[in-house]
Amino acid sequence: FFFNDTATTEIYTEQIVGSVRCVQETGNMPIMDGYEACQQIKQEIKLSGRMQIPIIAVTAFSGDFEKDKCLLNGFDEYLNKPFTSDVLKEAIVKVLNHNN
């Protein structure tokens, strides 16, 4: 799922929490960037008392600065595009194991 506005993040927390185990989010999006969406999703889940869902940042930007920016904004993992399906699988397994 990719979220780019407040309404979408609200719909997400109301309708899909419980059926989703991991979210992939792009950092730079129009309207609401992924950093803000990540923070809103995590805040809404926290307020609802539900178990947190890991969010993986997916970005075309590389380097330590971008990785640090993603992690400081609440993402649980960072992937730089392009990446292979194996790299994505490893990231998903890592965040799911860390959350359990």
Q: Could you please describe the fold and organization of this structure?
A:
The model has no long low-confidence stretch (mean pLDDT 78). With 100 residues, the chain is an alpha/beta fold. The two termini are 21 Å apart. The longest helix is centred in the middle third of the chain and has 15 residues. Strands 1-2-3 form a three-stranded parallel beta sheet, sandwiched between helices. The protein contains four helices and three strands, in the order αβαβαβα.
Q: How many individual helices?
A: 4
User: Sheet with the most strands?
Assistant: 3 strands, parallel
Instruction: Give the strand line-up of the largest sheet.
Output: 1-2-3
Radius of gyration: 13 Å
Write the element-wise H/E pattern from the N-terminal end onward. Answer: HEHEHEH
- What class do helices, strands and sheet pairing give? alpha/beta
What does the overall shape look like?
Answer: globular
Mean pLDDT: 78
Report the portion of residues in β strands: 5-15%
Helicity level? 40-55%
- List segments where confidence is low: pLDDT < 50 over at least 5 consecutive residues: none
Termini gap: 21 Å
Count of individual beta strands: 3
What structural keywords apply?
100 residues; alpha/beta; 3-stranded parallel β-sheet; 49% helix; globular
Secondary structure layout plus pairing:
Blueprint (H helix, E strand, L loop, with lengths): L5 H10 L7 E4 L7 H15 L6 E5 L4 H9 L4 E4 L4 H15 L1
Parallel strand pairs: 1-2, 2-3
Helix pairs in contact: 1-2
